[in-house]
């Protein structure tokens, strides 16, 4: 139950299940000890630069008790000597698997168990299911290798002799050779990253069949690849060549895992402290960017994501930039500007959408580009779908983006048709 402790616990069951922005009860230091609180502040919310973010809030009372409040990040958190908390999307029955596939631009291959995760799935299981399917595809095609320069002592001549070492180690009547040569290996950075992500997900999933599939793949990889932590930045220099094009979707998912996981060590099996949290705002923005781009392409138009400009105001001591989520152009002039808002209209909780600030923000984008504007929200049974008339400007339309499939169609088709029917063009 949302915000309540589970009746029985197993290693895969959370102590608390929350939706975005919900909170646990206030907990004393036995239930939420100082080490757990430090982990939230230093590890989960820590980091530097773009990695630093408030993923999980700590709220204190005067008596020293504290509670955990979810933000827009969904996933799972296990704190040392503290509770395990699962965080789900605020929109009930969101098709997480479908949204991840669409947001990450994953090929629409269908696979066994996909329908079981279509609605209301745990985020970790949805992500792991998608990852496992892509990993299975790569392993079926075969691991891609690259040549690496090695230096070894061999019993036959191979490559080039390292003359100085040959004379020092082997003497005038050698029985071995000090050689340097290029060797084809699959123990590469990208394969190590995939193995590391596989290991993380295998230890966190709750579905037993999925756990077994990931363990099988992990064992298969470990026969040829070293298990070692890999940082996301190490994948930035990896080039997906034409020969390894079948890796593209899996590498994209591997980056998603490594960029959002927080571990105290590689020994994930201990389950002492770990977190895998993904920003739903980012996922929804990526969904909106993709659907608008695909629909604009059908008209021969171009979509720019996060289009930064200084068109709104000029002069002054500071440059004032604006950056809408999507800007559509026909090559000569702008046609539409839009912003994605992963928000739910909830009057009972004193949360009404659209907020005045969201309207003001989009109107500023419209003024800058002189085009119709669109605010994209997750579907809410047409509670938000409407059009505003803005004085001396084009219309401002509220569009609801489907987050679950309907009428037996795929979520991809549902999103495209649903959004296409609402756009003001």
TrEMBL record:
TM helices/strands, residue ranges:
none
Residue ranges, annotated region (Disordered) = 1-35
Matching InterPro entries, A to Z?
McrC
State the Pfam families in the record.
McrBC
**Polar residues: bias regions:** 1-11
Spell out the PANTHER family in the cross-references.
PROTEIN MCRC, TYPE IV METHYL-DIRECTED RESTRICTION ENZYME ECOKMCRBC
Name recorded for this polypeptide? McrC family protein
Give the species this sequence originates from. Halobellus litoreus
